[in-house]
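Task 17 of the worksheet. Students: predict the tertiary structure of the chain below and write it out as structure tokens. Keep your answer in the requested format; marks are given for formatting as well as content.
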Amino acid sequence: MGDARGFLEHDREVPERRPVSVRLKDWNEVYEDFSEERLQVQASRCMDCGIPFCNNGCPLGNLIPEWNDLVYRDQWEEASHRLHATNNFPEFTGRLCPAPCEGSCVLGINEPPVTIKQVEVSIIDHAWEMGWVKPIIPQIQTGKRVAVVGSGPAGLAAAQQLTRVGHEVVVFEKADRIGGLLRYGIPEFKLEKKHLDRRLAQMEIEGTEFRTNTEIGIDISAEELMKGFEAVVLAGGATQWRDLPLPGRELDGIHQAMEYLPQANRIQEGDKSSKTISAKDKKVVIIGGGDTGADCLGTALRQGAEIVNQFEIMPRPPEDRSDSNPWPTWPLIYRVSSAHEEGGKRLFAINTSEFVGEDGSVKYLRTHKVEQVFEEGKMSFQEIPNSEEDIEADLVFLALGFTGPEKSPLLEQLGVLLDDRGNVDRSEDYETSIEKVFTCGDMGRGQSLIVWAIAEGRSCASSVDEFLMGATELPRSVSAKETPLN
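Model answer:
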């Protein structure tokens, strides 16, 4: 490494966020600029640890020590090449990934880990600014046609890899714009869509074809798809949201998070609708303490919510790792997102028992406190006596995660087998039960991280290429049966 004592001499530093009072007035990304000099100092903290657990902690196998050293040495273009060697879309992971690599960083045993995620996003943003990111035009055309169904990160990664080795790739998207949850699930303040549009433009120049407003199984039958393509990749995600079937669920004002967030993103795209859900001047409750709940929080605050309460059934995590959560596993600690900084109240160890309404609309939630109970190796939640509380709400968002892919006409027409969890069943090589049909990302894995989606898309492309050509030079990051360390 360029500075063998960097981790001893420098503390971890990350970019500051724009003042809350400023950023709540717009939808721009929240972070201030971070100078190249400060970033090079942070890169110098990478410690030549011998066994870089960060590589294993990252599903993509990112070459983290290599590009940290290159940034420290001011070799930014080469750092960009090493970054792209394992990741098609580092501008997405650098903004959205929770950074399991940092949870695995050896320095993290007894010090704050290296700011890997910030180095990553800085490299790719710098590369775009300098014009180093260029389309990679295939040198040959194989004459093989591949359909990719779904345009989220898994589908886009698979499509780009397959296009670059000369296949004719068509990406089908049922929505009106390409991007899947990147487009309509992630708020603008976490990912400005200019970053997505720039990458899609590159893919189009490379030869990938995008078809929007096309739902396979409805607009085009599965039979037609199978006849028109030598291989099919299912990358439709795990979009079947988890509901909360309690008394009063039918009341007006109770919505799924993914009914709410796409509308807010559409407004930023310039769309208009008379049925938009707005939190302006509303008392809002968000049920679910994860990233999607935080996205609802930041969105509601920007829309001018009067009060926002975010519920989490789990107890408040500790500030530091517990003994049962050792390095290099993912640290289960208390985290504060940019949205949590901006306002609202987080309520832990709380459960909802009933939605109560007036004149057909929700007015408050009947709640109680819970404690975790472990019996015979199973965890459950037990109500704490005399802990009932009614919390006002005239707008409720359910951010409870996803149970798997929707039971769509596509899956029914194809007849692919599902596993015990309701995901599309597949082999280690991403092959489904139907010949020449493959699946990657959340549709086969279940709800997961963007970094896993990209890793699976790349790996699935390798399997598809080998299926079509008999051999492949495309890299394979992960097996479809691999489970994460973090």
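Marker's comment: The first strand starts at residue 145 and ends at 149. Residues 125 and 409 are 40 Å apart (CA to CA).
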